[in-house]
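Two proteins, back to back. First:
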Amino acid sequence: MIQKKRTGRRAALSLMICTAMLLGGLPASAVTLEQVKQRDQLYCGISTETPGFSKPDAEGNWHGLNVDICRAVAAAVLGDKNKVKFVPLTDTDHVTALLTGKVDLLSMNFAWSMSHDTLIGLDFCGVSYYDGWGFMVPVALNVQSALEFDRVQVCIEPAGRSAGGIDAFFSRYNLEYKVVTPGKGQSAADLVKSGKCNVVSGDVSRLAALKLEFADPDDYVILPELISRRPLGPVVRQGDDGWFNLVRWVLFGLVIAEDKEITSTNIGDTAALEDPEIMRILGRENGTGKGLGIDDDWLYRMIEQVGNYGEIFDRNLGRNSALQLNRNINALWNRGGLHYGPPLN
């Protein structure tokens, strides 16, 4: 099964590379920003049914961190966060959709890796969420760290162990384990409920969603260790530097606003502050939009309508969401995390 899974990944990557050669080999258009302005709508590719990142509610309205990244770009460029057409995509059609111009931007759980960055004709604009493989255990197991594991039965979510580095982790720390593979029609949650495994491993964002499938999510805890790196973030076509710069600085702007404690609720009350960077966020100093091809109020609109990065995280993944994920490495650089925005000057 493992070999089949690896073969499937190679085939998928080969398909992406072939698509890039056929569709992305020509110089990418350098007028995406102008196309979005003329259309007066952003076409944003998102994942389907990904809790916390992109999922529609009962009325068909999309919610999630990736969704809010799209809305922030729309607010910055078009002045209205709602001027977005969300295009649900899968792991097999997302690259083609971007390279053919079906979407202007991908904001989905697409991992930044060397092959994705160099072989397909894509540019990753930055990291909106630092993900990685980790472990979830029942509270009753009474462990605080994966280093305490002893002869555990590990279920993989989703099935397929190579991406998570499971074997390397257990071998490195000389821990005994057994991988239990879900059968046809089974999920890792089914195996945990039936007592066939007492540890679940997978992307931490996926484990947080998996907790919600249990009768009492508080009976399970995600351990602090990450055993792989899986940075996620918005993606554009290579060759359109102006559009790449704009999306990248939208992402930076969300982080910088949180760093400066500018939120959607207080942004109208900060006119008296003398911090030059805050004045640039407010659009009170000329020049922040010039190099991006938009006006200087772009940051103000974006934060007022969508919020800063911390607000986006909290309502979709963190303390104000069902997933209840801790910030951890997704905190700001000066609060123990990795998120960092270059100076606004």
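And the second protein:
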Amino acid sequence: MAAPPLPPAGFDARRAFEGVHWYHEWEVFEGVHTPGRRPVSRICAKTRLPADLTGKRVLDVGAWNGAFSFECERRGASEVVAYSLENPEVTGFARLKELLGSRVKYVQGSVYSLAPEELGAFDLILFFGVLYHLRYPLLGIDRIRTVSRGDVLIETHTVTSRFLLRSPLWIVGLVLNLAALFRATPIWRQYKEFELHPQDQSNWFGPNTAAVIESFETAGFRVEHLDSWDLGTRSSFRATAVPLPSRLTDATYEGLSSLNVHLTGIKRKDADLFRRD
């Protein structure tokens, strides 16, 4: 893994970073960090992002300002695609790319629109801080599978016993040991507007760790739970692409073989999109 480069002569961090909401804190140049509150280094460690990505084709879903995309490029990835809904001129992506002289490509789009005929397949996909923002999380996971030929590293909010009930009665849940009772049961906890975060209305569902594992397994992945922290409210996983389960491809089921994803404008059988290279 290459060390951050020295800042260019006359570099002014204040001017470089002003006017942008820097959610991620990332070391752009040696000793120079974006003024965000979410350390990229911590997420890289928790998700076990490989130090050497030489020769890997990487997709960063929900890239925002591209900090993880540029980090993968720094670790030797041969090609990195930053894929996100936002305008890269607003998030700071374009500014970082220019500062770094980066080759990372930005594609503006929704996870629901991921398709191999447009983007190809990737050896590594980053899926950090996105899952709980999806109104249709299983559809998002299915779309990720269409462009995966290797691993997906996942970092997400996860539900603990504290989030199971919508009142102070969650304390009763602890007394009744609901945490142990539901630990092995996949649960998707739906959130009302601003319920999870008082300043963010974009949170829809909070999965527990079992739900993350089983949801990715049903989409054609083998899944490993890597770590949980912040009292279990954040977790990381590694999902490795494997052959699709038959109930997704069997025409007698309401799986991918019978689904046309009108939300993404795809007009043919979804199962065709899963043909491997």
